[in-house]
Specification:
single chain, alpha/beta, Rossmann fold, Dihydrodipicolinate Reductase, domain 2, 2 domains, nine-stranded mixed sheet, 15 strands, 30% strand
Length: 339
């Protein structure tokens, strides 16, 4: 079975979806929709077999199209996705699912009522290096997770003028950190500044998961280097994932242990143990290709997506809370929808 795909939005990120859906196994990219003729011209060069249109009605009326991928500005997601669902199409929507918890919840409800698949583009959950790290942590080799630090920075033309760093970059950590810790955070705090415009281009955010477990996330478009690094401090070992290093994933068998030694004031000392580093193999793969093919597979089989909207809505809750914290200059904001 070949799954017909329509794409709405062929601009900044949509052009990457054109490339991947055009060559994805099991799918056929039938129609590409964008309001900007320049984006359609560029898409036609990448995939001339597809029909180019400026009207979403053309996409929704095409009976060959079973799934629609949406890569339009986030503030348009609710209206466009609801139209697609109402037309009987399964939908893949780029992150964020929506720009408010209320809109995200409405989309989850619309998908349920329409009995349609609604999958969210949480790209890094399809990254094999992230999957390898999660597998390593879930086996317990690092012991109990104590805390996590994340650095997600870039520079050189990546600063955006339509949204801030929180909704564009920190949202990746809003879905990755719960996957690493294994539960939702209880509260968040965020401090950010806009040095290039009124929109924040730098943010420092803390997610408190309770039980002493916190994650500290730094995201910036205004930094020296491009970095994508996650460090997990466990009771038995430390795990570091550096997307631009070789090897990417390393288990450091380093930890503190209690000792019988005391300092001059009689306090028990901690003994530092270092038993070396272990590079961990990571399979090669292209996350966006795997994400697109997963959507096609789910449309064909009716399987629930790995990043279904109901689960993915948590990232919107976290980021909305971070926005509230930003307005309060870093005050703690409790998540209001415990599960």
């Amino acid at each position: 079975m070949t799954v017909g795909i329509g794409l709405v939005g062929a601009g900044y990120w949509g052009k990457n979806l054109v490339r991947n859906f055009a060559s994805a196994n099991g799918g056929e990219l039938i129609s590409i929709c964008d309001l900007d003729p320049r984006n359609l011209d560029a898409a036609a060069k990448l995939h001339p077999q597809a029909r180019m249109t400026t009207s979403i009605d053309t996409v929704l009326a095409d009976g060959r199209i079973a799934g629609v991928a949406v890569a339009t500005p986030a503030e348009t997601h609710r209206a466009i996705v609801e139209r697609c669902l109402a037309a009987g199409k399964d939908v893949f929507v780029e992150k964020p699912l929506a720009t408010s918890v209320a809109d995200a919840a409405a989309l989850v409800q619309s998908a349920r009522l329409a009995n349609r698949i609604l999958m969210v583009g949480h790209l890094f959950l399809y990254d094999r290096s992230i999957q390898s790290m999660l597998d390593l942590l879930h086996t317990g080799r690092a012991g109990e997770i104590r805390y996590v630090t994340v650095t997600r920075t870039s520079m050189g033309g990546t600063a955006r003028l339509d949204t801030n760093i929180v909704w564009d970059a920190l949202i990746h950590d809003a879905y990755l950190m719960p996957a690493i810790i294994g539960r939702r955070p209880e509260r968040v705090s965020a401090v950010g500044r806009g040095y290039l415009s009124e929109l924040e281009d730098v943010v420092f955010a803390c997610f408190d998961f309770g039980g002493g477990v916190v994650t500290e996330c730094y995201a910036s478009w205004y930094a020296l280097d491009k970095m994508r690094q996650i460090t997990v401090i466990g009771s038995n070992a430390i795990v570091r994932l550096d997307e631009f290093a070789d090897p990417k994933l390393v288990l450091y068998r380093r930890r503190y242990e209690a000792s019988d030694e005391r300092d001059p004031r009689g306090r028990l000392r901690w003994r530092w143990i270092d038993e070396g580093a272990e590079p961990c193999p990571v399979e090669r793969g292209e996350p966006l290709r795997e994400e697109c093919e997963h959507f096609i597979h789910c449309v064909a089989t009716r399987e629930t997506p790995r990043t279904e909207a109901k689960t993915a809505m948590l990232a919107v809750e976290i980021i909305e809370a971070c926005q509230a914290s930003l307005r309060g200059d870093g005050r703690w904001v409790t998540l209001e929808n415990p599960q």
